Amino acid sequence: MLFRQLFDEATWTYTYLIADPDTKEAILVDPVAEQVERDLRILKELGLTLRYCLETHIHADHVTGTGKLRDATGCLGIVPANAQATCADRFIQDGEVLQMGSIQIEAIATLGHTDSHMAYLVNGTHLLTGDSLFIRGCGRTDFQSGNAGAMYDAITQRLFTLPDETLVYPGHDYKGETVSTIGEEKQWNPRFVGQTRESFVDLMANLNLPNPKKIMEAVPANQECGKVAIAAR
Amino acid sequence: MLFRQLFDEATWTYTYLIADPDTKEAILVDPVAEQVERDLRILKELGLTLRYCLETHIHADHVTGTGKLRDATGCLGIVPANAQATCADRFIQDGEVLQMGSIQIEAIATLGHTDSHMAYLVNGTHLLTGDSLFIRGCGRTDFQSGNAGAMYDAITQRLFTLPDETLVYPGHDYKGETVSTIGEEKQWNPRFVGQTRESFVDLMANLNLPNPKKIMEAVPANQECGKVAIAAR
């Protein structure tokens, strides 16, 4: 498969472009509004047809590119089941497999950062974790219906049970790393190594992080697939 | 092989970690001084022994991590033939192959950005281009013995003659892209598509870019493998 990691510097967001090199069908996971022109250029240059924009969750730190990309390409916008996004063309359920040519994307419910969040396992090898598992970290759980206990359960019971060699591609990384593996995270992730569910919940309750700068704009915009932000420009 | 792309946000530099998963020997290409602690942590967590720090060239935009890494691990610092770096443990020649376990790294002289610059072809598939070929761009040629004609020759005659599917991993990318291929660059790179050697030289002479912020510090520091910068801290 064609697999590309793309980076948005303003929000440190990783977007993933996945395509079947034979059918030329493509999917973008967690596209960013400010990068839509770049993403459209890459699709065009690679001769790809965008079929889907897929969200891991309703983001609070950036506005999704889905609305603009849908307008430009006619692709479908897919969000996790139970997400408050009436604009979505389709909702994806835990365990559901999205098939696109030779590409298989399995949704794995990983609640905790928000109350509707999916990780996506691509062709059994590449795990896109969104804001659940990060490289040596995890997404925060202190706003937007976050729940630290649910995060602990999802990561330890759903993700850490995947094969050790599964590649971990997060939604963000703040130290300049790009990829890890399940085996590495089980061995070295300080949020989980030596933590019980209880101590993890306690740790997450005391991070005292500032709110994301864009939260007041991003959440309502993303519930409309990025449309609100576009209208305001 | 183990292959990891690492990012330094301050200078937009990509560092590459390459290792033989069996012998656990590792090499870092273009490490950055400010990221040495991160890089040492990753090496430790992955159980790797750093054998070499390899530079594509003497950088003007960041200070190399080689000096610190050599002090910490006893690795060897390798720089391109003719580079003004008396601190180097070893110089690598055009066409020379560095063998480390199952990893083969072939040096390809790609002058132009500086007068001593190598691209490195790893296991015949992954091409680390340093500041020669970028994704839809190329390194600048207007300081540090840069030579636009040499850049044009190196890229069109040495790199664009590699197989189309060769993966291109640059030393920097300023649009959030992480990888490309030789085929893509031959087809879409605006610095080369439709350009003659003459028009390319003219184009490069008229970019009017500001000097890198760190040039006065970085070049002399890198001629000492990063030692000067360390002493000044």
The first-level CATH class of chain A is given as Alpha Beta
Number of domains of chain A: 1
End-to-end gap of chain A? 36 Å
What is the beta-strand fraction of chain A?
A: 25-35%
Question: What name is given to the CATH topology of chain A?
Answer: Metallo-beta-lactamase, Chain A
**Helix share, percent of chain A:** 25-40%
Using the CA coordinates, give the radius of gyration of chain A: 17 Å
The largest pleated sheet of chain A is described as: 6 strands, mixed
Q: What low-confidence regions of chain A span 5 or more consecutive residues with pLDDT below 50? A: 229-233
Number of strands of chain A: 14
Side by side, the strands of the main sheet of chain A go 1-2-3-4-5-6
Query: Overall mean pLDDT score of chain A?
Result: 94
Q: How do the helices and strands follow one another from N- to C-terminus of chain A?
A: EEEHEHEEEEEEEEHEEHHHH
Provide the structure class of chain A. Answer: alpha/beta
Apparent shape of chain A: globular
> By CATH's scheme, which homologous superfamily of chain A applies?
Ribonuclease Z/Hydroxyacylglutathione hydrolase-like
